[in-house]
Design a protein that fits this description.
The protein is of the alpha/beta class. Helices cover 31% and strands 21% of the residues. The strands form three sheets. A seven-stranded mixed β-sheet has the order 6-5-4-7-8-11-10. A six-stranded mixed β-sheet has the order 14-13-12-15-16-17. Helix 3 links the parallel strand 4 and strand 5. Helix 5 runs parallel beside helix 6. The radius of gyration is 21 Å and the shape is globular. The N and C termini lie far apart (43 Å).
């Protein structure tokens, strides 16, 4: 395989998680009766541009289809995060009713609602029909399409360029990263700004966050690789923030390389130096990652089997993509975890891909009174433990499996 960005031959493996179905391909009562498509889940390292990436197997239209079930609005902490972002970005770049804001991968309109409240013109780009419909029902204009050079040129020709473009947790999801990034350079106004948020590869490696690896994440990003990719596609990174979201993320601020007016801040060089200090531009930094993943796997299986032997029920919370990675990597089925609870009504009544564990409503927790609740989206640990604090009434405890098994 060749690198998605620079075309170099890839010969170094970060981790091999064997095979699994795409993590958001939830099954229905009807589809669970048929064979699933499983694909290898292997991640490779480019020694030339340091883009870490999955092997090519699954087509983007197969994963992000009409049945796509991830809706951003169901996380209270995420909504709070983006509300603060909107307040700050509007103030920093003096956006007003003469500005235009575009969010790429607008999902269910979770963020653009806050833009609309400030009476700033905006629209979203969202390829998955289910989430696009949800956004439209909130009165948000959505262009239902995949973003890239083709769509950017079409929108620019319609005088629909942006003063601010937003791309939260989507840069990792695109198979043609050059086409995607270049689209921003074509659709930004001369003095426009684009912000991108994505999980920081540094944290994934250091904190053994192997369950954030799944087919929908084509790329695993550092500022080292992003600066190179952006420069080659007409964008300049001029600022970067470190964020706590998704186990540690970066927010990158970019401008057109030909017309941008913003001075590059010290934070960009600081994080480049931080990554270099960890050795992210050397293969040694990545070499023991698979060993840590295997340790997490065996610790979780040991806990589940022992709990089963003691007659202590373990259920899971959060039908999240990262949860599907760990369930399938560990080979966990409903004999060890009988059901998964989720808030999203679009997932309830369906089954987790691969493991076939049923997804149910929260009300079942109070009926079953499990001893342990395994929080699959560990990045939402604080939110979930507050929401389900009542399990302590019967001596219930919470568990997370990464970066290491923890019971609390």
């Amino acid at each position: 395989m060749k690198c998605r960005h620079c075309g170099a031959i890839l010969s170094n493996t970060l981790i091999d998680l064997f095979s699994s179905p795409p993590s958001n391909s939830y099954l229905t009562v009807k589809t669970i009766k048929h064979a699933e498509k499983w694909y290898p889940l292997k991640v490779l390292i480019c020694e030339k541009c340091w883009l870490v990436q999955t092997e090519d197997f699954v087509g983007v239209k197969e994963m992000f289809n009409d049945e796509y079930a991830y809706f951003s609005s169901f996380s209270k902490s995420w909504l709070s995060h983006v509300e603060i972002y909107v307040d700050n970005i509007v103030e920093r770049f003096k956006l007003n009713n003469l500005s235009n804001v575009i969010e790429v991968a607008a999902n269910d309109g979770y963020l653009l609602e806050f833009i609309q409240e400030k009476q700033i013109p905006c629209y979203g780009i969202e390829p998955t029909h289910s989430t696009a419909v949800s956004a439209k029902n909130k009165g948000i204009e959505i262009v239902e399409d995949f973003f890239g050079i083709r769509l950017a040129l079409s929108l620019a020709a319609q005088s629909r360029k942006a003063d601010l473009m937003i791309a939260n947790n989507v840069l990792a999801h695109v198979p043609n990263i050059n086409d995607f990034v270049q689209g921003f350079s074509l659709l930004l106004n001369e003095s426009g700004v684009a912000t991108f948020e994505f999980p920081h590869l540094l944290n994934l490696i250091v904190n053994s966050q192997f369950d954030t690896i799944y087919h929908e994440h084509y790329s695993y990003l550092s500022i080292t690789s992003v600066v190179i990719i952006f420069q080659d596609n007409g964008l300049e990174v001029f600022d970067v923030d470190e964020l706590p979201t998704h186990g540690g993320s970066l927010r990158v601020y970019a401008q057109r390389i030909d017309t941008g007016k913003h001075t590059v801040s010290k934070s960009v060089n600081n994080i480049l130096k931080k990554e270099a200090g960890y050795g992210m531009n050397t293969l040694d930094f990545y070499k023991d990652f698979h060993i840590k993943a295997e340790e997490s796997k065996f610790d979780l299986l040991h806990f589940l089997i022992n709990s089963k032997g003691r007659g202590q029920k373990v259920i899971a919370y959060g039908a999240a993509a990262k949860g599907n990675t760990i369930l399938n990597f560990c080979g966990i089925k409903s004999d060890l975890v009988p059901f998964v609870v989720d808030k999203n009504p679009n997932k309830i009544g369906k089954y987790m891909p691969g493991s076939h564990i049923p997804i149910v409503e929260e009300s079942l927790i109070k009926i079953e009174k499990p001893k342990y609740i395994l929080i699959l989206p560990w990045n939402l640990k604080d939110e979930v433990t507050e929401q389900l604090s009542y399990i302590r009434d019967w001596g219930g405890e919470f568990v997370v499996a990464t970066p290491k098994l923890e019971i609390f």
